């Protein structure tokens, strides 16, 4: 099934140019792995960028730098294949295994409320304020109603969810911001696994939002 919800042209261009933050860059790359249309667009943009770089004056690599880089790339593939994914992550599509493998053996599922489990994924220390997670949402459940302190990117890996902005299936990416208040709910049938990136903490609504504000006030 071809995805219906995609990153906009500006995001794809920024991804191809390497100017996105680490977490956002990874979730756009994961979407492109599942979406032939966006993958083709990114490939064209990267090829264009490569052609521009070819016109620039080349700088000599340090002795042995190329060999070391190639050796590191070659070692990564077998290591991932040998490690594999635990049973609770086996439903994830093979195209995104590389994005979740760093969490294996280093993180545990946390409860996000009824029917929702969250697995934190590792990010570079430079990703201050960002989160990168796997969500496991049972049919009929979802996170509490919320808005955002920044941007939120949610990529569906299995199953589907629906919120106030539409229906999202495998490969679709939902992008939220401060102007959007929603509550995603997993559709009946298959468990919904999703990758999620937030660039700032989400802001809950209703009684949970009041508790969040009181808690944050107490910490200030």
- Strand numbers in spatial order across the main sheet: 1-2-3-10-5-8
Task: Name the CATH superfamily assignment.
Answer: Jelly Rolls
Please give the count of helices. 6
What is the highest CATH level, the class?
Answer: Mainly Beta
Q: Indicate the radius of gyration in whole angstroms.
A: 19 Å
Strand fraction band? 15-25%
Low-confidence spans: 69-82, 209-220
Principal-axis shape equals globular
Query: What fold name stands as the CATH topology?
Result: Jelly Rolls
Distance between the termini: 47 Å
Task: Record keyword descriptors for this entry.
alpha+beta, Jelly Rolls, 6-stranded antiparallel β-sheet, 6 helices, 23% strand, globular, disordered C terminus
Describe the structure.
There is one protein chain. The chain is an alpha+beta fold and 220 residues long. It has a single domain, classed as Jelly Rolls (Sandwich), CATH 2.60.120.10. It is 35% helix and 23% strand. It is built from six helices and eleven strands. The strands form three sheets. The protein has a six-stranded antiparallel beta sheet, with helices on one face. The longest helix is centred in the first third of the chain and has 19 residues. The C terminus is likely disordered.
Write the layout of secondary structure elements.
Elements (H helix, E strand, L loop, with lengths): L8 H9 L4 H13 L1 H19 L10 H19 L13 H4 L9 E4 L2 E5 L10 E7 L8 E3 L3 E7 L1 E4 L2 E4 L3 E4 L8 E2 L5 E7 L3 E3 L1 H14 L1
Helix pairs in contact: 1-3, 2-3
